[in-house]
Amino acid sequence: MKHWHKSAAYREALQTLLIPIFLSTEQAMEWGSHLNAKQHTTLIQTQCALSNAARSECNTERKLSLAMQSQLMREAGQAFVPA
Prior knowledge:
Blueprint lengths: L7 H9 L8 H8 L4 H20 L3 H19 L5
Helix pairs in contact: 1-3, 2-4, 3-4
């Protein structure tokens, strides 16, 4: 099993990118449209980890919350415009 999310490079990148808790698709897309390439990569890695967490969560309410945030992160990532 890969543990990329525990690597020093990922932890450093995540410390420099504060990902908000999105309340809407519009908010996520607006935020995502201002990312640089490195931030976009960190966002996608974080979204993937969140998606995996949602899939393995047993508590239905928590599973739904994690899945919703994962989806909003995915939408933020799709709003990224490469320079």
